Amino acid sequence: MAWAWILVLVGVAAGIAYSIWNYQKKSAAREAASQQRFAELLREQAAASGRPVPAPATAAPAPPATPVLHVAPAPPAPAPVPAAAAAARERFLGQHETLLYLLLKTGLPDHEIFANVSLASVAALPAAASEREQQLRRLSPYQLNFVVCDKSMRIVAAVDIEAGGGADAAGIQQFKADYLKRAGIRLVRVNPTAMPRREQVRSLIVGDPSTAAAPNPPT
């Protein structure tokens, strides 16, 4: 009985397959006949009008796809540096600064003299990063002409040349004086038109200010 059912199922499947094949064959024949009839109608119409028969349109083959390369943009070229920005200063120190530096070097041979020192570098900065950055920004515009240190690099005094220029210059000098006083650093101001003599330098910088025989007493 099982083989009989299998044979029946195979027969049914074969019949369905044959029906599908026969339908597809007839559809293809009808399509071919329709296209042939359409071509004949075109030829008849062209012959009647005297125009050449147009060739059946065929789809043009698609061009091969061109791979798209994603190229990273080149970094912008650095801006050219002006020639003036690369030129060295004619003198590191001006005339008055040079004279005072030589007086300090000869009058204090056992000390170290540093020129053009930022105000922020002579005092301890806050430990907190935010406060330290704020303090650095606040002090960055201010400089000292000279800082005198002993051989162990302890600061002995700061030396500034008095500068004219009205209220702004006076305000800057006062700010530096107040800051150094709070930091416990001695400030000596020197009049550029009345420089101390070499023998006066030691008492002026490291001696008792009250006994210094100098035309510019320390602040």
What features would you describe in this structure?
It is a single chain. The relative contact order is 0.09. The protein folds into 2 domains: 7-50; 91-211. It is α+β, with helices and mostly antiparallel strands and 219 residues long. It is built from 6 helices and 4 strands. The longest helix is centred in the first third of the chain and has 48 residues, at 2-49. A 4-stranded mixed β-sheet has the order 1-2-3-4, with helices on both faces. The model is unreliable at 209-217 (pLDDT under 50). It has helices at 2-49, 83-86, 95-107, 129-139, 167-183, 198-205; strands spanning 112-118, 143-149, 155-161, 187-190.
What's the topology here?
Blueprint: H1 2-49, H2 83-86, H3 95-107, E1 112-118, H4 129-139, E2 143-149, E3 155-161, H5 167-183, E4 187-190, H6 198-205
Parallel strand pairs: 3-4
Antiparallel strand pairs: 1-2, 2-3
Supply the key terms:
single chain, 219 residues, alpha+beta, four-stranded mixed sheet, 46% helix, disordered C terminus
Approximate shape:
rod-shaped
End-to-end distance: 127 Å
- Low-confidence parts: 209-217
Strand order in space, largest sheet = 1-2-3-4
Q: Element order, helices and strands?
A: HHHEHEEHEH
Number of helices: 6
Based on DSSP secondary structure assignment, what is the total number of beta strands?
4
Q: What is the domain tally?
A: 2
**Whole-number average pLDDT?**
77
Q: In terms of structural class, how would the helical and strand content be classed?
A: alpha+beta
Output the radius of gyration: 50 Å
| Most strands sheet | 4 strands, mixed
Query: Can you give the helix content as a percent range?
Result: 40-55%
Beta strand %: 5-15%
